[in-house]
C-alpha cells in the first residue's frame, strides 16, 4: 500500500479524499484514509491523527476552533463528525467501528466548550451523539454507544436489544472527571454530572446535579459558571459568592 503525502500551505486545510491517501500537516499531524469520497476539513490550529477506512465519511472541525488535539479513527461508511468553533480541546478521541464497520453515525459537538479528556466509542449503526454548546468536559470522560460485534437479546422474546441510539448532552453541561455515559442517555441543559458517575438513562429536568452509579438526581435547581470572570457581577449569584467569601475571611 502506498500512502501519498499531501502538503497543504493553505490555512483552510480542506481536503477531499479519493482512494488511499495520507494527509500530513506539520510534524505531529497524520490522518490517513482508505476509500473514496471522504471529506476532511480541519482548522489550522488543530493537531489531528488517526485513520479513516471506508467511503463517504466526513470530518469537519470549525476554523474558529481554538488549539486542539484530536485522534479520530473510523471504520465504516457514511459517518459524520462535526466539531463547531470556539472550543478548546486538550484531548479528544473518537472511535467509530473496530474490526467491524459501523455506518451512518453522527457525532456533533457544539461551540464554546472545553474538553479536558474525552473518549467517544461508537459501535452501533445509525448512532447519533449530540453535545450542545458552552460545556465543560473534565478529564477521563468516556461515552460509549453500542456493543457490536457482541450481541444482546431478550431471552424470552428473542428481541435484539442493542439497537441504534441517540445520546444527547444539552447546552451548558458540566461533566466531572471520569464520568461514563452509555447509550440512549440524555443530560439536559445546565446540568452537572458528578465525578465517577455512570449515566445509563435519560433525564428530562434542566439544571440538576446528577451523580452516582447508576446516576440519579441528587439536587435540583443548580446553576454553575466556569469561573469568576464568567459570573455577572450584577447577579444574585455574584452577591451570594461575595457574602460567602467575606464571611470566610
Please estimate the helix content. Answer: under 10%
CATH superfamily label: Hexapeptide repeat proteins
Contiguous uncertain segments of 5+ residues: 1-12, 14-21
From the coordinates shown, what is the CATH architecture?
3 Solenoid
The amount of beta strand, in percent, is 35-45%
| Element pattern in H and E | EEEEEEEEEEEEEEEEEEEEEEEEH
State the domain count.
1
Mean pLDDT, to the nearest integer, reads: 87
CATH topology type = UDP N-Acetylglucosamine Acyltransferase, domain 1
Description:
- By secondary structure, the protein is mainly β.
- The chain has a single domain (5-248), classed as UDP N-Acetylglucosamine Acyltransferase, domain 1 (3 Solenoid), CATH 2.160.10.
- The chain is 5% helix and 41% strand.
- It contains 1 helix and 24 strands.
- It has one helix at residues 236-248, and strands spanning 5-6, 14-18, 21-24, 30-34, 36-41, 46-53, 58-61, 68-75, 80-83, 88-96, 106-109, 114-115, 118-122, 128-131, 136-137, 141-145, 166-169, 174-175, 180-182, 186-187, 192-193, 198-199, 208-212, 215-220.
- It has a 16-stranded mixed sheet that branches. The protein has an 8-stranded mixed sheet with strand order 2-5-7-9-11-14-17-20, with no helix packed on it.
Amino acid at each position: 500500500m502506498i500512502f501519498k503525502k499531501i502538503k497543504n500551505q493553505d490555512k483552510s486545510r480542506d481536503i477531499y479524499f479519493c482512494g488511499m491517501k495520507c494527509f500530513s500537516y506539520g510534524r505531529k499531524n497524520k490522518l490517513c484514509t482508505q476509500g473514496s469520497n471522504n471529506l476532511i476539513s480541519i482548522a489550522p490550529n488543530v493537531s489531528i491523527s488517526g485513520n479513516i477506512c471506508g467511503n463517504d465519511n466526513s470530518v469537519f472541525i470549525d476554523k474558529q476552533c481554538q488549539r486542539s488535539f484530536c485522534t479520530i479513527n473510523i471504520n465504516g461508511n457514511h459517518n459524520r463528525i462535526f466539531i463547531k468553533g470556539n472550543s478548546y480541546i486538550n484531548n479528544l478521541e473518537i472511535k467509530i467501528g473496530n474490526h467491524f464497520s459501523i455506518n451512518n453515525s453522527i457525532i456533533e459537538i457544539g461551540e464554546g466548550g472545553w474538553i479536558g479528556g474525552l473518549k467517544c466509542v461508537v459501535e452501533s449503526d445509525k448512532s447519533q451523539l449530540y453535545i450542545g454548546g458552552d460545556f465543560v468536559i473534565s478529564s477521563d470522560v468516556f461515552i460509549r454507544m453500542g456493543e457490536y460485534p457482541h450481541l444482546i437479546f431478550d431471552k424470552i422474546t428473542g428481541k435484539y436489544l442493542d439497537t441504534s441510539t441517540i445520546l444527547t448532552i444539552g447546552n451548558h453541561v458540566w461533566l466531572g472527571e471520569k464520568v461514563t455515559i452509555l447509550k440512549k442517555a440524555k443530560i439536559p441543559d445546565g446540568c452537572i454530572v458528578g465525578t465517577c458517575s455512570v449515566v445509563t438513562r435519560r433525564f428530562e429536568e434542566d439544571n440538576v446535579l446528577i451523580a452516582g452509579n447508576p446516576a440519579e438526581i441528587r439536587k435540583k435547581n443548580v446553576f454553575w459558571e466556569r469561573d469568576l470572570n464568567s459570573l455577572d457581577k450584577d447577579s444574585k449569584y455574584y452577591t451570594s459568592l461575595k457574602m460567602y467569601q467575606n464571611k470566610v475571611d
